[in-house]
Inverse folding.
Protein backbone atom coordinates (compact mmCIF):
# COMPACT_ATOMS: atom_id res chain seq x y z
CA UNK A 1 0.00 0.00 0.00
CA UNK A 2 1.40 3.41 -0.95
CA UNK A 3 1.65 5.89 1.92
CA UNK A 4 1.99 9.16 0.07
CA UNK A 5 3.25 10.92 -3.06
CA UNK A 6 4.22 14.53 -2.40
CA UNK A 7 4.52 16.68 -5.50
CA UNK A 8 6.42 19.97 -5.47
CA UNK A 9 6.59 22.46 -8.32
CA UNK A 10 4.86 22.37 -11.69
CA UNK A 11 1.71 20.78 -13.06
CA UNK A 12 3.85 18.30 -14.97
CA UNK A 13 5.08 17.00 -11.62
CA UNK A 14 1.46 16.70 -10.44
CA UNK A 15 0.56 14.64 -13.51
CA UNK A 16 3.62 12.42 -13.12
CA UNK A 17 2.86 11.93 -9.42
CA UNK A 18 -0.53 10.52 -10.39
CA UNK A 19 1.19 7.97 -12.64
CA UNK A 20 3.73 7.10 -9.95
CA UNK A 21 0.90 6.54 -7.49
CA UNK A 22 -0.78 4.16 -9.91
CA UNK A 23 2.42 2.15 -10.30
CA UNK A 24 2.82 1.83 -6.53
CA UNK A 25 -0.72 0.78 -5.67
CA UNK A 26 0.10 -2.88 -5.13
CA UNK A 27 3.63 -2.54 -3.80
CA UNK A 28 5.11 -2.13 -0.33
CA UNK A 29 4.43 0.98 1.72
CA UNK A 30 6.28 3.77 -0.03
CA UNK A 31 6.61 7.51 0.33
CA UNK A 32 7.69 9.48 -2.74
CA UNK A 33 8.90 13.08 -2.91
CA UNK A 34 8.60 14.39 -6.47
CA UNK A 35 11.06 17.26 -6.07
CA UNK A 36 11.43 20.63 -7.79
CA UNK A 37 14.55 22.61 -8.70
CA UNK A 38 13.09 25.74 -10.28
CA UNK A 39 14.58 27.88 -7.49
CA UNK A 40 17.00 27.34 -4.62
CA UNK A 41 14.02 27.67 -2.27
CA UNK A 42 12.24 24.86 -4.13
CA UNK A 43 15.23 22.59 -3.49
CA UNK A 44 15.18 23.51 0.21
CA UNK A 45 11.46 22.73 0.35
CA UNK A 46 12.13 19.36 -1.27
CA UNK A 47 14.70 18.53 1.41
CA UNK A 48 12.35 19.67 4.18
CA UNK A 49 9.62 17.44 2.73
CA UNK A 50 11.99 14.45 2.80
CA UNK A 51 12.85 15.00 6.46
CA UNK A 52 9.23 15.59 7.47
CA UNK A 53 7.93 12.52 5.66
CA UNK A 54 10.59 10.30 7.19
CA UNK A 55 9.46 11.42 10.64
CA UNK A 56 5.82 10.75 9.72
CA UNK A 57 6.47 7.39 8.03
CA UNK A 58 9.49 5.82 9.75
CA UNK A 59 8.83 2.30 8.38
CA UNK A 60 8.08 3.20 4.75
CA UNK A 61 10.43 3.14 1.78
CA UNK A 62 11.23 6.79 1.06
CA UNK A 63 12.17 7.53 -2.55
CA UNK A 64 13.01 10.89 -4.09
CA UNK A 65 12.52 11.74 -7.76
CA UNK A 66 11.99 14.93 -9.77
CA UNK A 67 14.25 17.70 -11.00
CA UNK A 68 16.11 18.46 -7.77
CA UNK A 69 16.91 14.79 -7.24
CA UNK A 70 18.02 14.44 -10.86
CA UNK A 71 20.28 17.50 -10.93
CA UNK A 72 21.80 16.81 -7.51
CA UNK A 73 21.34 13.06 -7.28
CA UNK A 74 24.31 12.33 -5.01
CA UNK A 75 23.28 14.94 -2.47
CA UNK A 76 19.77 13.52 -2.10
CA UNK A 77 21.07 9.94 -2.10
CA UNK A 78 23.33 10.81 0.85
CA UNK A 79 20.44 12.07 2.98
CA UNK A 80 19.99 9.49 5.78
CA UNK A 81 16.21 9.65 5.36
CA UNK A 82 16.33 8.55 1.70
CA UNK A 83 16.24 4.90 0.61
CA UNK A 84 16.61 5.49 -3.14
CA UNK A 85 16.67 8.17 -5.83
CA UNK A 86 14.85 7.72 -9.15
CA UNK A 87 15.95 10.23 -11.84
CA UNK A 88 13.37 11.95 -14.04
CA UNK A 89 14.28 9.81 -17.05
CA UNK A 90 13.28 6.68 -15.10
CA UNK A 91 10.35 7.88 -13.03
CA UNK A 92 7.59 6.68 -15.36
CA UNK A 93 8.76 3.08 -15.79
CA UNK A 94 7.20 0.60 -13.34
CA UNK A 95 10.46 -1.31 -12.87
CA UNK A 96 12.03 1.81 -11.35
CA UNK A 97 9.67 1.50 -8.38
CA UNK A 98 10.32 -2.13 -7.55
CA UNK A 99 12.07 -2.84 -4.22
CA UNK A 100 15.22 -3.32 -6.31
CA UNK A 101 14.82 -0.85 -9.20
CA UNK A 102 15.73 -1.89 -12.72
CA UNK A 103 15.99 1.54 -14.34
CA UNK A 104 15.88 2.28 -18.08
CA UNK A 105 13.01 4.04 -19.69
CA UNK A 106 11.70 6.80 -21.88
CA UNK A 107 11.29 10.18 -20.16
CA UNK A 108 7.82 10.49 -21.67
CA UNK A 109 4.73 8.93 -20.11
CA UNK A 110 2.99 6.01 -21.73
CA UNK A 111 -0.60 6.48 -22.82
CA UNK A 112 -3.43 5.29 -20.62
CA UNK A 113 -3.19 4.70 -16.88
CA UNK A 114 -5.75 5.07 -14.16
CA UNK A 115 -8.02 8.06 -13.83
CA UNK A 116 -6.62 11.11 -12.15
CA UNK A 117 -7.53 11.45 -8.46
CA UNK A 118 -7.83 15.23 -8.91
CA UNK A 119 -11.04 16.81 -10.17
CA UNK A 120 -9.33 17.46 -13.51
CA UNK A 121 -6.99 15.31 -15.57
CA UNK A 122 -3.43 16.57 -16.01
CA UNK A 123 -2.06 15.15 -19.26
CA UNK A 124 1.71 15.50 -19.90
CA UNK A 125 2.12 16.03 -23.64
CA UNK A 126 5.74 17.22 -23.66
CA UNK A 127 8.84 16.96 -21.51
CA UNK A 128 12.25 18.64 -21.45
CA UNK A 129 13.39 21.94 -22.93
CA UNK A 130 15.67 22.98 -25.80
CA UNK A 131 16.17 26.56 -24.62
CA UNK A 132 18.92 27.97 -22.45
CA UNK A 133 17.46 30.68 -20.22
CA UNK A 134 20.33 31.93 -18.10
CA UNK A 135 18.47 31.56 -14.79
CA UNK A 136 17.11 28.06 -15.39
CA UNK A 137 18.58 24.70 -14.46
CA UNK A 138 15.52 22.62 -15.43
CA UNK A 139 16.94 21.43 -18.82
CA UNK A 140 19.64 19.66 -16.80
CA UNK A 141 16.93 17.79 -14.93
CA UNK A 142 14.54 17.14 -17.81
CA UNK A 143 16.76 16.89 -20.90
CA UNK A 144 15.87 17.81 -24.47
CA UNK A 145 12.31 18.51 -25.55
CA UNK A 146 10.29 15.38 -26.39
CA UNK A 147 6.66 15.27 -27.49
CA UNK A 148 3.96 12.65 -27.27
CA UNK A 149 2.30 11.94 -30.60
CA UNK A 150 -1.29 13.02 -31.17
CA UNK A 151 -2.39 9.39 -31.01
CA UNK A 152 -0.65 8.87 -27.65
CA UNK A 153 -2.21 12.01 -26.21
CA UNK A 154 -5.68 10.93 -27.29
CA UNK A 155 -5.12 7.49 -25.74
CA UNK A 156 -4.01 9.15 -22.49
CA UNK A 157 -7.11 11.36 -22.34
CA UNK A 158 -9.74 8.75 -23.21
CA UNK A 159 -9.85 6.77 -19.92
CA UNK A 160 -10.24 9.97 -17.91
CA UNK A 161 -13.25 11.04 -19.95
CA UNK A 162 -14.71 7.55 -19.59
CA UNK A 163 -14.74 8.12 -15.85
CA UNK A 164 -16.46 11.49 -16.16
CA UNK A 165 -13.57 13.94 -15.82
CA UNK A 166 -14.89 17.29 -17.05
CA UNK A 167 -11.61 19.16 -17.53
CA UNK A 168 -8.35 18.16 -19.17
CA UNK A 169 -5.18 20.20 -18.57
CA UNK A 170 -2.30 19.86 -21.04
CA UNK A 171 1.03 20.08 -19.22
CA UNK A 172 4.72 19.99 -20.01
CA UNK A 173 8.01 21.70 -19.27
CA UNK A 174 7.68 23.84 -22.42
CA UNK A 175 4.19 23.00 -23.69
CA UNK A 176 4.24 25.43 -26.61
CA UNK A 177 7.27 23.63 -28.07
CA UNK A 178 5.12 20.51 -28.51
CA UNK A 179 5.60 18.88 -31.89
CA UNK A 180 9.01 20.31 -32.82
CA UNK A 181 10.59 16.84 -32.56
CA UNK A 182 7.76 14.99 -34.34
CA UNK A 183 7.55 14.23 -38.09
CA UNK A 184 6.31 17.28 -39.95
CA UNK A 185 6.83 19.46 -36.85
CA UNK A 186 3.16 20.04 -36.01
CA UNK A 187 2.28 22.92 -33.69
CA UNK A 188 0.43 22.90 -30.40
CA UNK A 189 -2.62 24.29 -32.19
CA UNK A 190 -2.76 21.07 -34.22
CA UNK A 191 -2.80 19.01 -31.04
CA UNK A 192 -5.49 21.13 -29.38
CA UNK A 193 -7.61 20.95 -32.52
CA UNK A 194 -7.22 17.17 -32.67
CA UNK A 195 -8.28 16.79 -29.03
CA UNK A 196 -11.39 18.92 -29.53
CA UNK A 197 -12.33 16.99 -32.68
CA UNK A 198 -11.73 13.56 -31.13
CA UNK A 199 -13.71 14.32 -27.96
CA UNK A 200 -16.68 16.56 -28.84
CA UNK A 201 -18.23 15.86 -25.43
CA UNK A 202 -15.19 17.15 -23.51
CA UNK A 203 -16.52 20.23 -21.69
CA UNK A 204 -13.25 21.97 -20.81
CA UNK A 205 -9.69 21.99 -22.10
CA UNK A 206 -7.12 24.07 -20.24
CA UNK A 207 -3.51 24.85 -21.15
CA UNK A 208 -0.68 25.17 -18.66
CA UNK A 209 2.00 27.88 -18.90
CA UNK A 210 2.66 29.08 -22.45
CA UNK A 211 5.64 30.78 -24.06
CA UNK A 212 3.94 33.57 -25.97
CA UNK A 213 6.53 33.66 -28.77
CA UNK A 214 5.63 30.04 -29.65
CA UNK A 215 1.85 30.47 -29.83
CA UNK A 216 0.97 29.53 -33.42
CA UNK A 217 -1.92 31.08 -35.40
CA UNK A 218 -4.21 28.06 -35.04
CA UNK A 219 -3.62 27.90 -31.29
CA UNK A 220 -4.39 31.62 -31.01
CA UNK A 221 -7.61 31.09 -32.96
CA UNK A 222 -8.65 28.24 -30.66
CA UNK A 223 -7.78 30.13 -27.47
CA UNK A 224 -9.78 33.15 -28.56
CA UNK A 225 -12.61 31.49 -30.49
CA UNK A 226 -13.33 28.03 -29.05
CA UNK A 227 -15.63 28.01 -26.02
CA UNK A 228 -14.28 24.67 -24.76
CA UNK A 229 -10.75 26.07 -24.50
CA UNK A 230 -10.74 27.86 -21.17
CA UNK A 231 -10.33 31.67 -21.20
CA UNK A 232 -7.27 31.52 -18.97
CA UNK A 233 -3.82 32.05 -20.45
CA UNK A 234 -0.74 31.81 -18.24
CA UNK A 235 2.28 33.36 -19.93
CA UNK A 236 5.95 32.83 -19.16
CA UNK A 237 6.81 36.54 -19.13
CA UNK A 238 9.70 36.42 -16.60
CA UNK A 239 10.39 40.16 -16.94
CA UNK A 240 8.91 43.37 -18.28
CA UNK A 241 12.29 44.93 -19.05
CA UNK A 242 13.89 44.32 -22.45
CA UNK A 243 17.48 44.42 -21.21
CA UNK A 244 16.71 41.88 -18.50
CA UNK A 245 14.91 39.71 -21.05
CA UNK A 246 18.07 39.72 -23.16
CA UNK A 247 20.19 38.81 -20.17
CA UNK A 248 17.77 36.00 -19.42
CA UNK A 249 18.05 34.83 -23.06
CA UNK A 250 14.30 35.03 -23.46
CA UNK A 251 13.03 35.22 -27.03
CA UNK A 252 10.41 37.96 -26.75
CA UNK A 253 10.30 41.66 -25.94
CA UNK A 254 7.94 43.35 -23.54
CA UNK A 255 6.16 45.03 -26.48
CA UNK A 256 5.52 41.64 -28.09
CA UNK A 257 4.06 40.27 -24.88
CA UNK A 258 1.78 43.27 -24.44
CA UNK A 259 0.65 43.10 -28.07
CA UNK A 260 -0.19 39.40 -27.72
CA UNK A 261 -2.32 40.02 -24.65
CA UNK A 262 -4.10 42.93 -26.31
CA UNK A 263 -4.84 40.78 -29.35
CA UNK A 264 -6.26 37.98 -27.21
CA UNK A 265 -8.39 40.32 -25.13
CA UNK A 266 -9.70 42.10 -28.22
CA UNK A 267 -10.82 38.78 -29.66
CA UNK A 268 -12.03 37.27 -26.37
CA UNK A 269 -12.47 39.94 -23.69
CA UNK A 270 -13.17 37.51 -20.84
CA UNK A 271 -9.69 35.97 -21.03
CA UNK A 272 -7.89 36.15 -17.68
CA UNK A 273 -4.13 36.54 -17.86
CA UNK A 274 -1.65 34.83 -15.58
CA UNK A 275 2.10 35.28 -15.68
CA UNK A 276 5.39 34.13 -14.22
CA UNK A 277 7.65 37.03 -13.25
CA UNK A 278 11.07 37.02 -11.59
CA UNK A 279 11.85 39.76 -9.08
CA UNK A 280 15.39 40.98 -8.57
CA UNK A 281 17.11 39.28 -11.50
CA UNK A 282 20.87 40.04 -11.53
CA UNK A 283 21.70 43.60 -12.67
CA UNK A 284 18.08 44.69 -12.19
CA UNK A 285 17.90 48.44 -11.46
CA UNK A 286 14.98 50.33 -9.89
CA UNK A 287 13.97 51.43 -13.41
CA UNK A 288 13.94 47.81 -14.59
CA UNK A 289 11.82 46.85 -11.59
CA UNK A 290 9.43 49.65 -12.55
CA UNK A 291 9.11 48.01 -15.96
CA UNK A 292 8.12 44.77 -14.22
CA UNK A 293 5.36 46.61 -12.41
CA UNK A 294 4.33 48.27 -15.66
CA UNK A 295 3.95 45.02 -17.62
CA UNK A 296 1.72 43.61 -14.90
CA UNK A 297 -0.57 46.59 -15.47
CA UNK A 298 -0.30 46.55 -19.26
CA UNK A 299 -1.14 42.85 -19.45
CA UNK A 300 -3.80 43.09 -16.70
CA UNK A 301 -2.28 40.12 -14.87
CA UNK A 302 -4.71 38.68 -12.30
CA UNK A 303 -3.03 35.30 -11.73
CA UNK A 304 0.58 36.09 -10.87
CA UNK A 305 3.38 33.70 -9.95
CA UNK A 306 6.10 35.96 -8.55
CA UNK A 307 9.49 34.36 -7.96
CA UNK A 308 12.19 36.16 -5.97
CA UNK A 309 15.38 35.47 -7.91
CA UNK A 310 17.73 33.02 -6.23
CA UNK A 311 21.01 32.00 -7.88
CA UNK A 312 21.37 28.42 -9.03
CA UNK A 313 24.96 27.15 -9.23
CA UNK A 314 25.88 26.17 -12.76
CA UNK A 315 23.67 28.76 -14.46
CA UNK A 316 25.04 31.88 -16.24
CA UNK A 317 22.82 34.18 -14.15
CA UNK A 318 24.49 33.00 -10.95
CA UNK A 319 27.74 34.57 -12.21
CA UNK A 320 26.13 37.95 -12.95
CA UNK A 321 26.16 40.87 -10.47
CA UNK A 322 23.51 40.02 -7.89
CA UNK A 323 20.81 42.23 -6.41
CA UNK A 324 20.98 42.24 -2.57
CA UNK A 325 18.52 39.68 -1.15
CA UNK A 326 16.56 42.24 0.95
CA UNK A 327 15.99 44.28 -2.22
CA UNK A 328 14.89 41.16 -4.09
CA UNK A 329 12.38 40.35 -1.36
CA UNK A 330 11.04 43.90 -1.32
CA UNK A 331 10.59 43.96 -5.08
CA UNK A 332 8.85 40.59 -5.01
CA UNK A 333 6.47 41.92 -2.35
CA UNK A 334 5.69 44.97 -4.51
CA UNK A 335 4.97 42.80 -7.54
CA UNK A 336 2.72 40.50 -5.51
CA UNK A 337 0.85 43.51 -4.09
CA UNK A 338 0.31 44.86 -7.61
CA UNK A 339 -1.12 41.54 -8.80
CA UNK A 340 -3.30 41.26 -5.69
CA UNK A 341 -4.78 44.73 -6.24
CA UNK A 342 -5.55 43.96 -9.87
CA UNK A 343 -7.03 40.62 -8.92
CA UNK A 344 -9.30 42.21 -6.32
CA UNK A 345 -10.58 44.72 -8.87
CA UNK A 346 -11.16 41.94 -11.39
CA UNK A 347 -13.06 39.77 -8.92
CA UNK A 348 -15.35 42.71 -8.16
CA UNK A 349 -16.41 42.75 -11.82
CA UNK A 350 -17.54 39.10 -11.54
CA UNK A 351 -20.04 39.67 -8.71
CA UNK A 352 -23.58 38.98 -9.84
CA UNK A 353 -22.53 37.21 -13.04
CA UNK A 354 -23.28 33.49 -13.38
CA UNK A 355 -20.28 31.27 -14.09
CA UNK A 356 -19.79 27.57 -14.74
CA UNK A 357 -17.52 26.23 -12.01
CA UNK A 358 -15.64 22.93 -11.71
CA UNK A 359 -16.12 21.82 -8.11
CA UNK A 360 -13.13 20.83 -5.97
CA UNK A 361 -13.13 18.64 -2.87
CA UNK A 362 -12.78 21.53 -0.42
CA UNK A 363 -16.08 23.22 -1.25
CA UNK A 364 -14.58 25.64 -3.75
CA UNK A 365 -14.14 25.47 -7.51
CA UNK A 366 -12.71 27.27 -10.52
CA UNK A 367 -14.47 28.98 -13.38
CA UNK A 368 -13.08 28.89 -16.88
CA UNK A 369 -11.08 32.04 -16.14
CA UNK A 370 -9.65 30.27 -13.05
CA UNK A 371 -11.35 32.58 -10.57
CA UNK A 372 -12.13 30.77 -7.29
CA UNK A 373 -15.77 30.27 -6.26
CA UNK A 374 -17.54 28.80 -3.25
CA UNK A 375 -19.74 25.96 -4.51
CA UNK A 376 -23.16 25.09 -3.08
CA UNK A 377 -23.15 22.61 -0.17
CA UNK A 378 -23.30 19.03 -1.34
CA UNK A 379 -21.82 19.71 -4.78
CA UNK A 380 -20.01 16.59 -5.97
CA UNK A 381 -16.26 17.11 -6.59
CA UNK A 382 -15.48 17.12 -10.28
CA UNK A 383 -18.96 18.25 -11.32
CA UNK A 384 -19.80 21.43 -13.20
CA UNK A 385 -22.15 23.78 -11.41
CA UNK A 386 -23.44 27.30 -12.08
CA UNK A 387 -22.52 29.88 -9.42
CA UNK A 388 -23.72 33.47 -9.19
CA UNK A 389 -21.62 35.21 -6.51
CA UNK A 390 -22.86 38.04 -4.33
CA UNK A 391 -19.68 38.84 -2.42
CA UNK A 392 -15.95 38.11 -2.06
CA UNK A 393 -14.41 36.63 1.07
CA UNK A 394 -10.64 36.13 1.23
CA UNK A 395 -10.32 36.11 -2.53
CA UNK A 396 -13.14 33.61 -3.12
CA UNK A 397 -16.37 34.53 -4.87
CA UNK A 398 -19.44 33.27 -3.05
Amino acid sequence: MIAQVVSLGCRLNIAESEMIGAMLQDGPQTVVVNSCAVTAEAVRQSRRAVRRLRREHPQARLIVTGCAATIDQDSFAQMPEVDAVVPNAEKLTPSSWLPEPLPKSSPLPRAGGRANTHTRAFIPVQNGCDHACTFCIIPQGRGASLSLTVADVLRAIEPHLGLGVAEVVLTGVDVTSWGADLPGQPKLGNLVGAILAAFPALPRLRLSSLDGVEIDPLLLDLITGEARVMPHVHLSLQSGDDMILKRMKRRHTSAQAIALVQQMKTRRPEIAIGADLIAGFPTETPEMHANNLAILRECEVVHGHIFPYSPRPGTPAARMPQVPPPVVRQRAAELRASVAAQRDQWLQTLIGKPATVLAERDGTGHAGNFASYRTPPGTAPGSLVTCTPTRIIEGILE
In short: DSSP finds twelve helices and 18 strands in the chain. Confidence is low (pLDDT under 50) at residues 101-117. The two ends are 39 Å apart (CA to CA). The first helix runs from residue 11 to 23.
